[in-house]
Amino acid sequence: MTQHVLLNNIDHQDTRVLHCFAAEYGDNLCSVPVFATEFGALQHEYAILAQHNQQDDSFQAVALLGLAAEENLYLNPQHANGWDGRYIPALIEKGPFRIGFQQQAGQTEPEAVVHIDLAHPKVNRQYGQQLFLSHGGNSPYLQHIADTLQRIHRGTALTGPLFNAFGRLNLLQPVNIEYSLQNGEKHRLNGYYCINSDALARLRGPELEQLHQAGFLQQAFAMQSSLRHISSLIERKNQLLRAAAQPV
């Protein structure tokens, strides 16, 4: 059960957060929702696809992390923080934190504030990253988390307009990912969408300019180019299979 509270430098002066990643912390996800505000970083290491929510006919971008349920092939205990990648998707990187909004007296717009889940397994009072400096200011880690939460917040607002634009221009198409593993097993991943490369290449004039002015043309190219990482994800899986087959 979660226990989200407003973070402050009085009650949480001694609170620490483990900045590490492992299945025991709930990081064993085969995919994670991602946002247009991080596509630039994601495209260099992850396959960015989309999933369709039939209930409200919406789309959400996701980064593919594994090829089976509860499989994250970027988790690696040999790395210092347990993650084998230079960039960690924002929803995983944020850990036990989330953004909230608080109405301040005299202000017309609510102020963004940070909440922490005190029941999260990465939260403790002995080990991990310090949240506040001794004089009460935010630690570099907490500032990094605040930036990450802002990236999520801005990206959430862009998700609808981004996929509405893609839909109007018929830039999305279903994709079936078929692959074979080194042990001979054959598999298929269904339920994902990718950028239609032909439709993207055919864009001309006002449609192309409109997509560019909205800032979404770059995101379309990022999703398109990121598909090359599917092959590297399969190789990660094969490496695990080879390691498991070696005699102890």
* Shape, principal axes of CA atoms: flat
The SS-based structural class is: alpha+beta
Number of helices: 7
Rg value:
20 Å
| Proportion of strand residues | 15-25%
The major sheet is characterized as:
3 strands, antiparallel
Order of helices and strands: EEEHEEHEEEEHEEHHHH
What would the average pLDDT be, to the nearest integer?
94
Low-confidence blocks of residues: none
Level of helix content?
Answer: 25-40%
First-last Cα distance = 39 Å
List the domain count as a whole number. Answer: 1
Number of strands: 11
Main sheet: strand order: 1-7-6
Could you describe the 3D structure shown?
This is SapC family protein. With 248 residues, this protein is an alpha+beta fold. It has one domain. Helices cover 32% and strands 23% of the residues. The strands form 4 sheets. It has a 3-stranded antiparallel sheet, with helices on one face. A 3-stranded antiparallel sheet has the order 8-2-9, with no helix packed on it. A hairpin with an 8-residue loop joins strand 6 and strand 7. The radius of gyration is 20 Å and the shape is flat. 25% of the residues are buried.
